[in-house]
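Suppose you are handed only these lines of text.
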Amino acid sequence: MYKILTFNQIAVVGLERFPRDRFEIASEFASPDAILLRSHKLAAEEISPSVKAIGRAGAGTNNIPVGHCTERGIPVFNSPGANANAVKELVIAGLSLGSRGILPGIEYVKSLGDMQDGAELSKLLEKEKKRFKGNELSGKTLGIVGLGAIGSMIARAALDLGMSVIGYDPALSVDAAWRLPSSVQRMENISSLFARADYITLHLPVLDSTRGLVNADLLANCKPSACLLNFAREEIVDVAAVESALDSGKLRQFITDFPTPNLIARTGGDVILMPHIGASTDEAEDNCAVMASEQLVDFLENGNIRNSVNFPALYLERSGAARLAISNRNVPKILSSVLDILADADINIHDMLNKSREEIAYNLIDLDAKPDTALLDKIRGLDGVVNVRLIA
Ligand SMILES: NC(=O)c1ccc[n+]([C@@H]2O[C@H](COP(=O)([O-])OP(=O)(O)OC[C@H]3O[C@@H](n4cnc5c(N)ncnc54)[C@H](O)[C@@H]3O)[C@@H](O)[C@H]2O)c1
Ligand SMILES: O=C(O)CC[C@@H](O)C(=O)O
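From them, the structure of the protein bound to (2R)-2-hydroxypentanedioic acid can be written out as follows.
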């Protein structure tokens, strides 16, 4: 039985993807085979030696020590695109909240709870509504930083709203480029995007290269009427620089899914704060849980890798009597040494696949006979081999 250790609330429809005759799921296990989580900040010490894989039901993996997992030969999976529609819909709501007096208007109406006379009430509302007038999104320019799953969906929705869309993504994949509407104008640098946009929305991962990316220098380029939306990660924005930009009138509004105490303490309506609910819909939680769970099942039972953030994608149809899944440092001669050991033991290879990604290489080798423990230990003992798994 494979043991799956869960953190956070994982949608039931996802947990149901683990066949109960072969998988146990619990929030406490001494020696789990895999970890399935959402936003729980996973410490390296929480990953016991038995762990073979980690599944993130969501997009961002900055809560997982990915580098440490790579060192240990543990693939980390995420669920790209599975919650993109949920984030898109909330960002569109954010754009509306940032352009009209919706929230202050609602607060104002709530403050009139003591008024009993309907005619008086409606007279007052008609008089006061000018205080909550806004602007239309149509005709404005939206700047999208990060044109992946979420960014491209927002681009399409914003174009439908009549906005002009400009985008910046220095690492755009070919697939993502295909998904992008052709009328999105790609900017050469992020400063030009900040200078031109009326609304700027961030949809990139937090990486060493993106931590604090939105800083005072960038904000100095903004139109004073600009509204910045951060539904990506808190760390991408230098929040102190945003507060200064708001204070000095260099930025009109900040809308974020990642509140800080200082932002909460602000008065004056120039921030709109949400409690990290970008992906909080039944649909997104189901999609993420299903995708992450299916990927873990396929990895544990077959060694296949889909949507890993640190391992190469690799799929091999099962054949032969047994399968070896081997991770090794991405250096020459390791695979040939493995093959020599198998040949010396007279074990024929039925099929195999080998791929590498940065410092790690991964191999699936289907064999005509099941190797014994001594042979597996010999492979484990090769210099550069990180881990070896026999999948019966
Ligand atoms: N608020 C939420 O609940 C919520 C939900 C989902 C995702 N997110 C966050 O949003 C991020 C994006 O999600 P996604 O599903 O669109 O991911 P994605 O991988 O499909 O897209 C991310 C894009 O960012 C681009 N990128 C990388 N570095 C960049 C840089 N320096 N400047 C501009 N672009 C850069 C990549 O090339 C990629 O195209 C996630 O990493 C996660 O942190 C938040
Ligand atoms: O799991 C969640 O609720 C949030 C997930 C979101 O931040 C993501 O990166 O996909």
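What can we learn from it? The chain has a mean pLDDT of 97. The chain is about 35% helix and 20% strand.
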